[in-house]
């Protein structure tokens, strides 16, 4: 039987500590502790984390590290890396870390050296990507591929799309990457109107090769293709990435053109596997290798650094501090890098599908809150949309700022403006503006006393709003790999702290089953006994319109 987090001695100590800490002001913490930035920052795998703008002190961190030890972070981490079947509800190992392990390492799971399997697939991906990129892989008209369409959803979409966007500076100039995920035909239809079947390569990406959206889009893409090319041309235009060889064959793709992965790779952790094929095609295999190396560097750090200097552990503990002691219900991700525009969406699946759970590993109800809502957008865009709420709203929402010190472009002035905004926002969240400061500003502008009284509450910023800042020198394949692995491990640590299985996702099943029933009723015979009046009413309106 697991120990509920509420009964952990360190958790209880943190509760007493919080009774004091909730009154602290970040301004005071900085004034009292000049070395705060140096003392509350850490570097790993070419990433730098400043966590000094958080409502914590040395004692807080010591108590949080005690909580991590009490909850068994280190043995659970070692069990994951060793290939133990820690995904208990699916009886699977969790080995996305093996996907980025060097060739000369070895890890046996169920009598197989999984590292050798991983590199055997990489050895097939390399020549394939080289043929497509060099123009040797030809479409049915004898022309080189110009457009690559990844059809997949969830983890078979979010990761590759995010990474292709993040690393677009490295993209092959002839290849345009497209991602189709939604079962809404508008998604595929809009794309098919743009691409030339002669020069388009479809990647059907699905771990299970049964996902409704992906299979429907894949069949429609094949039907469209066959109105242009012949069935014998399909192998030149359709490849698959999956764990399900039989279903790939049944779809009509030769397993020769299939890049496999394994059940021990969770969908939302699969970007490092053959699911990353679009990334390798876009940026080239050597760069993809750098991406893997960046992830591996973060793995090494996570495995070996003491908890006190362990970046994913620190990030996870700070998240728990806000979620479970300050009752923060969400976490905002603010990448100050346009190319990371898909990163918040990627993290939504990673974090919320992993830790959006209400029962513990042993099936008992959780006694404390688990995963917050994760959301965000790139800076500076977010500043002109929802940052108002972050500064002056009634909820305190922690923010993770992410920025690269060097720009990926040569436009004068833009990068300094971007970084200035990033740093200014975290400073403003931390300091706020007191009523006295707001009043002094208005007095300096010679405003009337009545106007000052009226406006002072509106111009006051409470401050004391926490944030982390993650910096990298530049956004490269390696630093992106480290960043993704950082958040993967953070998610893992939080899952262990809360006691949940971060690697299943039963919560998405119910809607899928109900959708199947309703779909047959929209086009076939309605079954009103199955539903409530709302659902029946909606079905009836849709049937009338169809
Ligand atoms: O949303 C549920 C889910 O199973 C995700 O975990 C997964 O990433 C996605 O569907 C796609 O699954 P598949 O790769 O099997 O098509």
CATH H-level superfamily title of the largest domain: Glucose-6-phosphate isomerase like protein, domain 1
| Average of the residue pLDDT scores | 97
Low-confidence stretches: none
> What structural category characterises the helix and strand content?
alpha/beta
Q: Kindly state the number of beta strands.
A: 13
Model description:
By secondary structure, this protein is α/β, with parallel strands linked by helices. It has four domains: 5-70 and 305-431 and 466-503, Glucose-6-phosphate isomerase like protein, domain 1 (Rossmann fold), CATH 3.40.50.10490; 96-290, Glucose-6-phosphate isomerase like protein, domain 1 (Rossmann fold, 3-Layer(aba) Sandwich); 432-464, no CATH class; 510-545. It is built from 22 helices and 13 strands. The chain has helices spanning 9-21, 26-32, 36-39, 58-70, 73-81, 114-134, 158-166, 185-192, 212-226, 234-237, 245-251, 277-283, 285-304, 311-325, 343-355, 387-392, 414-431, 435-444, 449-459, 477-498, 509-523, 533-545, and strands at 41-44, 47-50, 108-109, 112-113, 147-151, 176-180, 200-205, 238-242, 258-260, 330-336, 373-376, 399-404, 467-472. The protein has a six-stranded mixed beta sheet with strand order 1-2-13-12-10-11, with helices on both faces. The protein has a five-stranded parallel beta sheet with strand order 6-5-7-8-9, with helices on both faces. It has a two-stranded antiparallel sheet with strand order 3-4. Helix 7 (158-166) packs parallel to helix 12 (277-283), helix 12 (277-283) packs across helix 13 and helix 21 crosses helix 22. The radius of gyration is 25 Å and the shape is globular. The protein starts with 8 loop residues before the first helix and ends with a helix. It binds 6-O-phosphono-beta-D-fructofuranose (F6P). Residues 153-156, 206-208, 211, 214, 267-268, 353, 505, 508 line the site of 6-O-phosphono-beta-D-fructofuranose (F6P).
């Amino acid at each position: 039987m697991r120990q509920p987090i509420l009964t952990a001695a360190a958790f209880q100590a943190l509760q007493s500590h919080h009774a004091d800490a909730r009154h602290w002001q970040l301004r005071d913490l900085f004034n009292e502790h000049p070395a705060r930035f140096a003392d509350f920052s850490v570097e790993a795998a070419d990433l730098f984390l400043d966590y000094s703008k958080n409502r914590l002190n040395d004692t807080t961190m010591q108590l949080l590290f005690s909580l991590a030890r009490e909850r068994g972070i280190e043995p659970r981490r070692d069990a994951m890396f060793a290939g133990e079947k820690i995904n208990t509800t699916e009886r699977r190992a969790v080995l996305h870390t093996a996907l980025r392990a060097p060739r000369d390492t070895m890890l046996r799971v169920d009598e197989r050296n999984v590292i050798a399997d991983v590199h055997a697939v990489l050895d097939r991906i390399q020549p394939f990507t080289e043929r497509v990129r060099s123009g040797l892989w030809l479409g049915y008209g004898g022309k080189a591929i110009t457009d690559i369409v990844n059809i997949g959803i969830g983890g078979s979409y979010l990761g590759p799309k995010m990474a292709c966007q993040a690393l677009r500076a490295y993209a092959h100039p002839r290849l345009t990457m497209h991602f189709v995920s939604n079962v809404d035909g508008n998604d595929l239809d809009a794309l098919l109107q743009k691409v030339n079947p002669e020069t388009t390569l479809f990647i059907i990406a699905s771990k299970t090769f049964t996902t409704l959206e992906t299979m429907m889009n894949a069949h429609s893409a094949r039907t469209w293709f066959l109105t242009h090319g012949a069935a014998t041309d399909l192998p030149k235009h359709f490849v698959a990435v999956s764990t399900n060889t039989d279903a790939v064959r049944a779809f009509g793709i030769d397993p020769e053109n299939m890049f496999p992965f394994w059940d021990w790779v969770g969908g939302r952790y699969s970007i490092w596997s053959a699911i990353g094929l679009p990334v390798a095609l876009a940026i080239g295999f050597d760069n993809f290798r750098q991406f893997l190396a960046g992830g591996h560097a973060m793995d090494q750090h996570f495995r070996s650094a003491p908890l006190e200097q362990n970046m994913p552990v620190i990030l996870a503990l700070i998240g728990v501090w806000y979620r479970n002691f300050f009752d923060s219900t969400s976490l905002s991700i603010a990448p100050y890098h346009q190319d990371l525009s898909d990163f918040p969406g990627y993290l939504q699946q990673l974090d919320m599908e992993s830790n959006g759970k209400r029962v513990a590993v042993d099936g008992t109800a959780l006694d404390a809150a688990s995963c917050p809502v994760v959301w965000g957008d790139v800076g500076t865009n977010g500043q002109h949309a929802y940052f108002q709420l972050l500064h002056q709203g009634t909820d305190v929402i922690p923010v993770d700022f992410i920025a690269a010190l060097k720009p990926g472009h040569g436009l004068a002035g833009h990068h300094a403006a971007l970084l200035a905004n990033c740093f200014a926002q975290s400073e403003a969240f931390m300091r706020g503006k007191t009523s006295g400061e707001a009043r002094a500003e208005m007095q300096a502008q010679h405003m009337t006393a009545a106007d000052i009284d009226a406006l002072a509450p509106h111009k006051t910023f409470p401050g004391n709003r926490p944030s982390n800042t993650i910096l990298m020198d530049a956004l490269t394949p390696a630093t992106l790999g480290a960043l993704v692995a950082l958040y993967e491990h953070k998610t893992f640590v939080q899952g262990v702290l809360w006691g949940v299985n971060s690697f299943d996702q039963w919560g998405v099943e119910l809607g899928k089953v109900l959708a199947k029933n309703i779909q047959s009723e929209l086009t076939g015979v309605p079954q009103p006994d199955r539903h409530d009046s709302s659902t029946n009413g909606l079905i009836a309106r849709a049937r009338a319109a169809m």
